[in-house]
Amino acid sequence: MAETVEFRSNGSKASGYLVTPASGSGPGVLVIQEWWGLDSGIKEMANRLGQAGFVALAPDLYHGELAAHDEMDKASHLMQSMPPDRAGRDMSGAIDYLASHPSVTSKGIGVVGFCMGGMLSFIIAANRPDKVKAVVPFYGFPQGATEPDWSKLTAVISGHMAEQDSFFSPEAARALEAKLRALGKNVTLTVHPGTGHAFMAPHNALGTFNSEVASKVWPQTVAFLKENVK
């Protein structure tokens, strides 16, 4: 079942797309959007997680704003103008909503993020170690000034990055993996050969969708979440 829900966000309100599995219950997973907004592609990913037995919630970090898949300038503007503190509160509120939802059976929460959402998934994991136990970031990760305080990070991370990516380079991904491992963190960032940014995206907005890689990575994602979100 899929529905739009409202939840508290540090004294304010936010909304999101909630999917409950046919069984009626399952582990909780936060799904974080790309720079387009809470679009059909992110809803499809949440639906897939629901079909795999998870209770998935994708918060609307743009609060109703949306960019079409041929509006890259608008998507970039929406991402740049999104207040980071509000996004942080919304993600944290969504985690609390999931954690207290009667359909969620897990004590911890998983996080899956794409592009901008991949970057944000690292940040919310570092900021909410009390709840976030497993993270699957796609394409994106924090760099430089956007990096959080890694000392608080306790979640297991299994990331999937693109080899040909002008937004997040594979060299930077490998450097971050090495940095976090040196800090004792359980992090694996896999760079998939021959892939471009957004290789998992069903909407194929950038013309980089790779069905072969996507069909291999998705079952791995589901298995990783089932193993680590309990």
What would your notes on this structure say?
The structure is a single chain. By secondary structure, this protein is of the alpha/beta class. An eight-stranded mixed β-sheet has the order 1-2-4-3-5-6-7-8, sandwiched between helices. The chain has helices at residues 40-51, 72-81, 84-100, 116-127, 170-182, 211-228; strands at 2-9, 12-19, 26-32, 55-59, 104-114, 132-138, 156-164, 187-196. Helix 5 (170-182) links the parallel strand 7 (156-164) and strand 8. The model has no long low-confidence stretch (mean pLDDT 96). It is globular.
Summarize the structure.
The protein is an alpha/beta fold.
Note the beta-strand portion: 25-35%
Encode the helix/strand succession as letters: EEEHEHHEHEEHEH
Number of strands: 8
- Annotated CATH architecture: 3-Layer(aba) Sandwich
Task: Give the end-to-end Cα distance, rounded to a whole number of Å.
Answer: 22 Å
Mean pLDDT over all positions: 96
- CATH third-tier fold name: Rossmann fold
Q: How many helical elements?
A: 6
Q: What is the CATH H-level superfamily?
A: Alpha/Beta hydrolase fold, catalytic domain
What is the CATH C-level name? Alpha Beta
Helix content: 25-40%
Count of domain modules: 1
Going across the major beta sheet, what is the strand order?
Answer: 1-2-4-3-5-6-7-8
Q: Outline, from the CA principal axes?
A: globular
